Amino acid sequence: MSSPREPNPRLLRRLRQRLLAWYDANRRDLPWRDTGDGYRVLVSEFMLQQTRVSTVLPYFDRFLERFPDMDSLARATDEEVRTAWTGLGYYRRARSLHAAARAVVGEHGGLLPREPAELRELPGVGEYTAAALASIIHDQPEAVMDGNVIRVLTRLTADDRPVERAGTRGDLATLAGRLLAPDRAGDWNQAVMELGALVCTPRSPDCGACPWSRDCLAADGSPESYPVKKKAAPARRTHRAVGVFRRRGAVLLLRRNDPSLLDGTWELPGLDVASPADAARDLAADLTRRLGTAVTVGAEIATVDHSITTRRIRVAAFEAECRPLPRKRRDAREWVTEGEGLPMSSMTTKLLSRLASRHRDEPQDRN
């Protein structure tokens, strides 16, 4: 297995010149670029964690309409932020962004710090985000390391060591620091990430369009074999059962209280079940306990499949009834109709859409 080669000064200059020239000619026009607005960069960096640019763009625009600056976000309630984030997933990012905005306003006069060490003290800001913010906003010479950068650098150097190893990551970080153009640090970091997003893609990389193809050790071989990763563990398949309580066109949602997953989002009440065969029985017992009244679970009326990180979830929805029906309870229970703006996971949104479609297709009684 090989580690990255040490670039000589001449090669460093050539790589920098070619990549920056390519970036200047090909970079995407994104709403957080070249604005001089650190707040926009902060929001974009949180949204782009584990999410593609094309997915982020419409959410970014709506979020900025709702919270146009650091002060407005810092003053917002948790519920308002979660609602504005609905559909983007990974809701812990929304909580961290909100907390970071409050810290910037309360401790730094509303301006993002210049130094990476201070940036890392903000909620939700790790090594990558601190380097991105410091370089893009303040042009500090800090090299970023994300999935795009790792892919580009392992291909450039034909580094065939597993990227999960600390030694591999450390060597790649050193190489990224050597390559960094100190006089255009922010542009450089964005250029490397842009190259990975547009040209040096995970599958079918366009080596003919790459400004580094002449010097890339993987370009004439099999670039798709880099980076080398350990074999992923198989996805864990789980089953979930939820109850659908109806009242005058509305359904009952409960607020999730689980710091490990989707905390604070609203969902149809239910539980993970060990056996789909026992789902109705287990659901009735769980809902009776949680709502404090006897619940009857009827027929299964809809199913959806959903993936969250390494989990593959099949969700079954059942008709549910009790007397009296549960009352609305502040921050815990809500009766909602289709389209109401509560923060929900994409799994819940998908299931509600399926239920609404099924309900519209059912024959309606006429008096």
What this model shows, in words?
It is a single chain. The protein has 367 residues and is an alpha+beta fold. It is built from 13 helices and eight strands. Strands 5-1-7-6 form a four-stranded mixed beta sheet. Strands 2, 3, 4 and 8 form a four-stranded antiparallel beta sheet that branches. α1 crosses α11 and α2 packs antiparallel against α6. The C terminus is likely disordered.
Give a short summary of the structure.
Helices cover 43% and strands 14% of the residues. The protein has 367 residues and is an alpha+beta fold. It has a four-stranded mixed sheet. Strands 2, 3, 4 and 8 form a four-stranded antiparallel sheet that branches.
CATH class label of the largest domain: Mainly Alpha
Q: Extract low-pLDDT stretches.
A: 363-367
What's the N-to-C terminus distance? 77 Å
The CATH topology of the largest domain comes to Endonuclease III, domain 1
What is the H-and-E element order?
Answer: HHHHHHHHHHHEEEEEHEEEH
Helix content: 40-55%
Biggest β-sheet strands, sense, barrel: 4 strands, mixed
Rg calc: 25 Å
Number of beta strands: 8
CATH architecture of the largest domain: Orthogonal Bundle
Total of domains: 2
| Proportion of beta-strand residues | 5-15%
Strand order of the largest sheet: 5-1-7-6
Strand-helix topology:
Elements: H1 9-26, H2 38-47, H3 53-66, H4 70-75, H5 78-85, H6 92-108, H7 116-119, H8 127-138, H9 147-157, H10 166-179, H11 185-198, E1 236-244, E2 246-247, E3 250-255, E4 266-267, E5 270-273, H12 279-291, E6 296-308, E7 311-321, E8 333-336, H13 346-361
Parallel strand pairs: 1-7
Antiparallel strand pairs: 1-5, 2-3, 3-4, 3-8, 6-7
Helix pairs in contact: 1-11, 2-6, 2-8, 8-11, 9-10, 9-11
